[in-house]
Input
Amino acid sequence: MKLKTSSLLIAGALFGAAVLPAQANNDAMMDLLKVLRDQGTITAENYDLLANASKADKEAAESVKVDVENVTKTMPKITTEGKIKIESADGNWSFQPIGRVMWDAVSVDGDDNGVNDFDGTELRRARLGFAGSIYDWGYKFEADFAGGDASIKDAYVSYKTKLAGNKLGIKLGQSQIAFGFNIASSSKYMTFLDRPWYADKDTSPARQSGVVANLSGKSWIVATSLTQGSLKAGTTDEHTNGTTFAARGSFIPFQQDKTHLVQLGGGYMTTGGSDNSFSFSNHLTAHEDPISIKSATISGANYDGSDAIGLDAVAILGSFHAMAEYNGFTANGQNTASDIDVDSFSVEAGYFLTGESMKLKNGFWSGVKPKSPSGAWQIATRFETTEIDDNANNQEADMWTVGLNYYPTANTRLMLDYSTVTSFESAGISQNEPSALKFRAQAYW
Amino acid sequence: MKLKTSSLLIAGALFGAAVLPAQANNDAMMDLLKVLRDQGTITAENYDLLANASKADKEAAESVKVDVENVTKTMPKITTEGKIKIESADGNWSFQPIGRVMWDAVSVDGDDNGVNDFDGTELRRARLGFAGSIYDWGYKFEADFAGGDASIKDAYVSYKTKLAGNKLGIKLGQSQIAFGFNIASSSKYMTFLDRPWYADKDTSPARQSGVVANLSGKSWIVATSLTQGSLKAGTTDEHTNGTTFAARGSFIPFQQDKTHLVQLGGGYMTTGGSDNSFSFSNHLTAHEDPISIKSATISGANYDGSDAIGLDAVAILGSFHAMAEYNGFTANGQNTASDIDVDSFSVEAGYFLTGESMKLKNGFWSGVKPKSPSGAWQIATRFETTEIDDNANNQEADMWTVGLNYYPTANTRLMLDYSTVTSFESAGISQNEPSALKFRAQAYW
Amino acid sequence: MKLKTSSLLIAGALFGAAVLPAQANNDAMMDLLKVLRDQGTITAENYDLLANASKADKEAAESVKVDVENVTKTMPKITTEGKIKIESADGNWSFQPIGRVMWDAVSVDGDDNGVNDFDGTELRRARLGFAGSIYDWGYKFEADFAGGDASIKDAYVSYKTKLAGNKLGIKLGQSQIAFGFNIASSSKYMTFLDRPWYADKDTSPARQSGVVANLSGKSWIVATSLTQGSLKAGTTDEHTNGTTFAARGSFIPFQQDKTHLVQLGGGYMTTGGSDNSFSFSNHLTAHEDPISIKSATISGANYDGSDAIGLDAVAILGSFHAMAEYNGFTANGQNTASDIDVDSFSVEAGYFLTGESMKLKNGFWSGVKPKSPSGAWQIATRFETTEIDDNANNQEADMWTVGLNYYPTANTRLMLDYSTVTSFESAGISQNEPSALKFRAQAYW
Output
C-alpha cells in the first residue's frame, strides 16, 4: 500500500536530503518506524515517507527550541529589585540610573531664648545620576540637586583589572578619597541621620578630584588617593586647593560567617600647604542647627597644610553591631599662626529587633534587606566627642544620639533620631544643652 | 525482533525510572505504543524501549515549554508607549524616568510705545526626574532645569494602602498641596499655555514641603496637607515660612460613561501668620510679559496669615468640555496693614474637532491620545478675571484667550494661543489692552 | 481491541471538533496512524482516538510556538552596547538616557613668572539627558552640570518626514545652528581636547533657540536655522539677543568606500544688529588657561550685527584623516565703532596605529570603535591660527597641538595633548610662548 499525501511529498523534498542535528535520530517515532519497517508492518516506501515527515516534525520542534535559546541568550539582563540595571547578555555593558531622596523634618531646641531654634523641613539629599560599565572600564556621574543647584558628587571614569589574584580598581575624576570610615560609608546606609561632626568636613573630607586606586582581596582592602579639592565649580587648582595624599586599609581579622565578624581599619591623610585656608565648622545637633562647633581660621601664608590619622573598628554579632572611629587632625600653622588640633571620636551600637544584620561591602556599610514583609526595626545609640585646640576658642562638645530605624522594604527607610549635647564648652563659656528631634523618610534606587 | 540502538538504551537508562509529569502519558505516541503492544504488533521489550524514547521526547518538549514560561514569568514588564516604565514581573518594583520639554515662541504686544514688548523664545519647562515603587512604598524626584538651575518639583517618599475599601496615599516631602484645580492639574495637560493668573501663585500655591494625604473612592477624592513653603534652597523653616493647612475634595455627581460626566470640587487653605510677607504678582498676557498684575505687599509683623477658598466644576460631554474655577483669597493685615483681597475666576470651554475627549484622572486633567494617526485637533477659549482689593492700587484685569491645540501623537502637542486683556485697571489709570500670541511645542515621557 | 484511557477521551472531546491549523496534518504521527488504519493494523475506533490525541499533542506544541512568537513580537528592543535605548517592538516609540563625563588634568605653562600657570583638574563636561521618539516626532533634553549649575544644551521637540525621497528634519527649541564643522561635531568625537579658538565662540556659535531644518540625501545635507541667542536663563529676547540666520551644506564628491572619502562643506551666518554687544575671547592653550586671545568690544548702538562664512574639508583615507576649516567673521561697527574682523583656520591630520578609521555621520564626526579588544591608538596634530583686526589690539596667535588618543573600548577614551603657541602678538607686544599639557579621561552613553 502506498501513501501519497502531498504534505509528505513536500516534507520529503524539503528535508530528505537535509543534514539533521545528531539528536534528530533519538525520537521515538523514528525508532517505532524502524521497528515497524524491520518487522514488515509498514512498507519500505511508506517508511521513507513517514521518516521524512518525522524529521520535519523534529526540525520544527527544534526551531522553537532555538528561538527560545536565542531570545534568552541575547536578552539583556534587567534588574528591577534593589537597583535598576540593564546589562548586555554577555555582561560586558551595563547601565544603571541611580538616585536617592532624603526628606527630613527637624525640630532643633537650640537654647533657652529660642533664637537658635529651627522647626522645619529639609530636602537633605536629592541625587540623580547614571553609572555604567563597558568591559573593564566604567563611568559614574551623580549630582545632588537638593539645594537648587547641581552639587557634583561622583564624576569619574574607572578601570578595573586583576593584580596577583586581587582586584585592582582605578578612578580618574571626582570620587571618595582614601580616608575615613564614617565619611566613606554612603549616606544611604548610615545608622543615624547625621554623620559624626568630624566626618564630611576638612578633618575627613569626602570627595576630591584626582586619582584613587583600590586593591582588595578576600578579607582586606587598601586604597590610596592623590587629589585636589572638590570640584566646586567643576575646576580645582593646585595653587589654591593644594594636593591631598591619602591612604587607607582595612581587614577582617575575625569572621565566623557573614553576620559575625570584626573589621579593623586605619588611614593617613596629608594636605599640601598651598590650601588657602583652614577652619573647622559643623552644625551642632542637626544639619539645620544654627549653632555650630567651630575652630579659629588659619589663612593664606600662615597655613602650612594639615595631617590626619584615622582608626576605626566594626563588630557585627548577629543583629547587634558596634562601630568606633577615631580622627586625629592637625592643621599646621606657620608665621603668626599656631596649629589647630581637632581630636574626635565616635562610638555607636545598634540592634535589629527583627533579626536582620548590618552588612559590610568593600569595607564600608551596605544596605539592609528586611527579613519580613512587615519590615525591619533597629534601635541604636551613638556617643561622639570633638575637642578643638586652636589656642583661641578651644571648643569641646560631646553629644549622645539615640535612633529608631524602620526599614519598610529594601531601599526605603524611616528614621527618628534624638540628639542632645551634654557638654559644649567654648572658650570657658558653658552654654545650654541644645538638642534636636529629627525625622527622615528616604528611598534610593 | 529486538531493537538495540544506543540512543534508546541511553534514553531508557536516563528516563526509565524518572517520575514524569502527569500529562506525560497523554501523548498519542504512548497510546499508539500501548495499542501496538497489546495487539502484539510490537514486542513488550520494544515497547519498553520505545516508551522510554517517547518519554524522553516528551520531556524535551516540556523543557522548552518550561523555558518559555520561565522567560515570560521572570521577564520585567517594560512599557515604552505613553510612558517609560520598567516593572518587576511580580509588579512589586517599578521604575520610571520622567520628564517634559516645553519650548515657547512668544510675541507680546505690551503697549503702544513698545517698551513692554517681548518677542522671543523661552524654554518654559525642562524637567527630568525618576519615580518608582517598592511594594507599597514609592518615591519621586523631579526638577525643572529650564532656568539654568535645579528648581525642585516633586521630591517625596510615599506610601499607599487600603482604608475601608478606599485608596489611601501619603506623601512625605515636597508635592502638590491639597488645594485648587488648575494648579494641581499637570502643565502637560493644560488646555492653554498659561494657567489663570490666580493659579500657581500665593493665592493657589503649587508644591510645598510636608505631609499630604489622599483618600479616594470610585467617584470621589478627598485630600489634606500640612506643609511649609516650597523648598527654595532645599529647606523650609516654620519661623519664616509659616505653616499651611489645606483640604480639598471633589466628586462626580453625574457620570454616564467615561466621556460624559460632571465633577464638582472645592477646598480651603489657611497659612499661618509667620510668613514673612505677602504680595500677589503675575505676568499679564504671557509668562514673558514685562507687565504684571500685582497687589501691594504686607510684610513682617503686619502680616497675619491668609485664607482662601476654591470652588471648581468640570463638565465633559463627548468632545466638548467646560471648566470653571473660583478662587477667593484674603491676606490678613494687622497693625498698620489692611487686608488684601484677591478674587478670581476662570471659565474655559473646548472642543475636539477630531472626536477625542478630555480626560480626568484622580480628579484632575490627564493626557489625551489622538484617535487617528494624523493627530487630534482642539479649539478652546477661556475668560478669566482677577480683582485685587488692597486699599492701594486696587488692580483689576479681565483676559480672553483663544487656543488651537494639535496633538500629533500621544505625549506630544503643538499649541497656539492668543490672549488679550480687555480690561486692566490699576488705581483708576486705564492702560492699553496688551495682547500676546503664544506658540508651544511640547513633549513628555 | 478497544482503547479507553480517559486522557484520550478528554482529548477527543476537547479537540475532536476543533478547527486545527493547516499544518496540523503534516505530522508523522497522523500519517503513520493513517497507514496503520488503512492496512488494518489498528482499528478505525483506535485510529480516531489516537488521531485526536495526536492533534492535542500538536496543539500543545503549537501553543508553545505561539508563546515564543508573542514574547519575541511584543518584546521591546533594548540596546545596551554603544548606547542605551529602549524601543517598542514596532519601533514607533523609543527612549534613550544619554550623557557624558570628561575629566581633565591640565598643566598650563603660561609665562615665565608663573602668574598665569594652572596646574589642576577640571570636570570639563558632565552631561545628563534623555532623548526619545514617538512615531515621526521626537524630543531631546540634555544639560551640562559640570559647573555646578544646569547649562542647557539640546532642548527641543523634533519632527521628521520624507521630502522628494530625501530626509527632512525640523527641530523646535534649542539645538545646533546650521553653521560650522568643528563646532557642530560632538565633543565626544573631537580629535583633540579643545576645539580650535574660533569654534564654540561668537565666530561660530553652538546652540541657539529657534527653528532648525535639515534636508539630507545619500551623500549631501543642507541645513538652515533661524534662531536667537542661547537659552542662558531659559529665555531669549529678540530685542537683546538679535536674530541669527544660518545656512550650511556639505556633500561627498568622492567616496570609494566607507573609509575612503572626501567631504566638502560651507556655510553662511548673519546676526541681526540688535545684539547688545560683541567681543571675541577664548582661552589660549587650554580651557583653564588664564591667558586669552581676545578682541575689543562693540557695544549697544555701535553694534550693527555680524556676518560669517565658513568652509571646511574632510578627507578619510583608511586610517589616515585630514580636516581643514576656515572661518571668516566680521562684526559690523557703526557710529563710533569700527568693524572687528576675526579670520581663522585650522588644519588637522591623524592616523590610527591600530587600523581604525575616522567616521562621518550626517556630515560630522561620529564615534570610533576599536577593532581589537586591546583598544585603538591614534596620533594626531593640528595647526590653528586666528587673526583679530579690531583697530585696537590686533591680536594674532598660532598654535600647534600634538595628540595621542587611546580608545580602550567603544564609548571610552583617554587623551593626551600638548599645545604650544608659536606666535602670540598683541598690539605689537610679543609675549612668551605659552604651552599646556592636557590629559582627558572620557566616557559617554
Q: What stands out?
A: The radius of gyration of chain B is 32 Å.
